[in-house]
Write a structure and sequence with these properties.
This protein is mainly α and 198 residues long. The chain contains six helices and two strands. The protein has helices spanning 38-57, 59-62, 70-101, 122-134, 139-155, 165-190, and strands spanning 14-17, 27-30. Strands 1-2 form a two-stranded antiparallel sheet. It is elongated.
Length: 198
């Protein structure tokens, strides 16, 4: 499938490579991709996601007239900061491994991309869900963010674009399960079960 038209040769500037089945890779293949662009785009995605979480998570307990206890605030912030540091450290490790392989070897640097569960990144996706649940982020927002991130990975070289389709599904599924765990912990903290859907 062509995503646009190219120059004089008529070749598309990008096309969607759809891998059939759960063990295949689906990704956007770019004719030319400026390598420096991937990290700034990931940062923009994360900042927009953080803003969306901030805006949508504020009303869940306020509408119930419940304040957040100090211990839960500490857990929320500790989990959030820990998750960010964990993700940055893993991204740094991936960058170093990718650099050691050299040009053209990016597809082979992470064998976890070819497994249903990636030992390095699946726990980070799970904990992202826990963090979102602790902040009582509405489920619809969690769905948009997790599915949006997987679309980002499909589209941007260097951010999971070599993952097999089942790995993408597991990343989304574990994030949603993590969200439920976070919501239950937040419910204990607030003394009521609040499951924010919208």
């Amino acid at each position: 499938m062509n995503a646009g038209s190219g120059g004089a040769t008529g070749a598309a500037f990008a096309h969607l490579q759809v891998g059939p089945g759960l063990t295949a890779v689906t990704k956007v293949v770019w004719r030319r991709w400026p390598g420096w662009l991937s990290k700034p785009l990931a940062l923009v995605y994360m900042l927009v996601a953080a803003l969306l979480v901030y805006v949508t998570s504020r009303g869940a307990t306020a509408s119930a007239g419940v304040s957040t206890p100090l211990w839960l605030r500490v857990v929320q912030w500790a989990a959030t900061i820990g998750w960010v540091i964990w993700g940055l450290v893993q991204a740094y490790r991936d960058d170093r491994a990718r650099s050691a392989i050299g040009p053209g070897g990016a597809a082979a640097f992470n064998p976890g991309d070819k497994q249903f569960v990636d030992r390095a990144w699946t726990p980070i996706h799970t904990f992202a869900g826990v963090v979102l649940g602790l902040w009582l982020t509405p489920l619809v927002v969690v769905m948009v963010l997790t599915l949006g991130w997987e679309l980002f990975e499909i589209s941007v070289p260097g951010f999971g674009d070599e993952e097999i389709n089942s790995n993408r599904l597991s990343d989304v599924g574990v994030a949603w399960l993590g969200w439920l765990v976070g919501v239950l912990v937040a419910g204990v903290g607030h003394g009521l079960l609040v499951i924010p859907v919208v």
